[in-house]
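User: Working on a comparison across species. This one is ABC transporter ATP-binding protein from Candidatus Fimiplasma intestinipullorum. Can you predict its structure so I can line it up against the others?
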Amino acid sequence: MKQLCFRTVHILKKLYADHPTILPILIFGPFTTALIPFYTYYFSAAILNALLGGNTSQALEQVLFLIGGNTILRVISRLCANQEHILEWDVLDYSMSGHLRDKCFSIEYAKYESEEVLSALRKAEINQHMGYNYGNILEQTIGIMTQLWTLLISLIMMCVLFLASSSWPLWLSLVTLCGVLFSVLCASGLVSWLGARINQKLDFYLKQNFELNSSGNYFIRLRDQVSNGKDIRIYHMQDLLIDRLKHYFQFNGREQCRLEGLFSGVNGGSIQALGMLAYFVIGLKVLEGDILVGDVLFYANGILSFSAASATIIKCAHFLHMALQGVDETLSFIESEDMSYDGTLPVEKRDDGQYHFSLQDVSFRYPGSSNWVLRHINLDLTVGRSYALVGLNGSGKTTLVKLLCRLYEPTEGKILLNGIDITKYDYDEYVSLFSVVFQDFQLLSLPLDENVACSMDVDAAKFTSVMEQVNLQERLPDPHVLLFKECGDGINLSGGEAQKVAIARALYKDAPFVILDEPTSALDPISEAEIYENFSTLIENKTAIYISHRMSSCRFCEEIVVLDHGNIVERGNHESLLAQKGLYANLYETQAQYYAEAKQRDEHQ
Ligand code: ADP
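Assistant: Here's the predicted structure for ABC transporter ATP-binding protein from Candidatus Fimiplasma intestinipullorum:
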């Protein structure tokens, strides 16, 4: 409890520093909200008593008090509630999900991909989804404060009922007061205890099974991605997905409803029992002549409010505890270190473009894996030359590129740029040296020009130039055309067109190193030939690194590096590698033979 109060005050202080409106909300909101029902019942009772006593002018006066006071209280309460909602939804929740999003964009890629971080992210997302955030802390604090005011006011009322206006002997009044308080506390204790047990169980489902929930969310997201629609239909995956969704959500849903039903049953029963007790005691007081008939509702409301408030406080405290825990989990992810080490050296901006990379005895294992993907790689890359990385699937070509782009750090060895370890450079500046088209490049459901420029600020002339270079100008003449259907009525692209847009994006960036991982795998033979014929002009004096399975597409490269099981096994130009009669020659001849045989078959037919 102490910890709960301490953490809440700490967070509220932090929020107050940025949003001072929290203070008036916390002072006036709970008090006015708690006061409204008592005020209403008090004056309603007074009006009824005045009317029963035949005093119409007094009743009229009380009506004015009722309307006037009620209006003022409700205006203050509403204003506070509105401010609270604006703060919760527009500021606090939004800023936390904003921080979460920024974190996902800024965290080092290798960390982002790790199970530890993904699991922390899933937890944070579930906390967001459940509403366990700053806004919820504020909401629950206001709830507790409102109920504390209610407790205080109703306690005063009970003291007035049993002590101040009582014809009973003092001992009887005290015994009755204690008896009523005891019954009320027992009833609310029972409801709170049950509520806490049920909430604990619900937490178990929500928290302990967060993996299940996030898997369920994954299946829901699948539904929203148009591109999944094809496979889902062709392979009749609908039933599989629906069954999976049921598996993840149904159990929790049913159990949740059962528990909530049980809770409202017990809660409703205890309110009924307390109501009977309250009306019995108050009825006696009316018969004794201690209070007037009109006061019955007023005092009965006092006793019932006391009970409801004590149960609600415990419920709010529980949710406050959950929200604090959720915020702590989310913050621990948001505040975790972005990069293992972050260099600050600026990258030299060279007009002559003279950048030189040197991979020195680089070996690499993916985080959490014991398999060496690259072993003792020594390689020099100089600007202006063209390189090809070739090898069988899984030989480490893409991984080598990822290391070069600092998506991962070498496990052993180092990479130097102009003689300086690349980790010493400022990360963003370093990354600006590369334009990469990964095999699994991503185009977004945004206007075409923004996809290419990766910004809303598009250089129209440069955009047109790169679109012409990849021969897309005619097919996609409207720079603002929306791609895909996720964000509106956009156009779909063929695999080859999408690949050309991705190449255009790489060219638009105009970085000194252009890396193309299987850049023409989706292109038709004519487009592929065009791209390769134009590459020397497209790339100009930049360094180009091609990764390709098609040996014929590497022959124009000045240096070909052959990888096998993470080792560089051969290097040289096309002719020298053919002469070596090693892996490269073998792969080249196998492909050439395949095409020759196919041609022969065609000629026979
Ligand atoms: P290539 O580009 O030559 O086809 P890759 O560099 O993509 O090969 O992959 C080399 C090896 O690294 C493969 O065995 C692959 O399974 C493994 N690998 C690739 N990405 C990851 C990753 N993110 N985590 C663990 N292993 C990976």
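For your comparison, note: The domain at 2-220+251-334 is CATH 1.20.1560.10 (ABC transporter transmembrane region fold).

User: Helpful, thanks.
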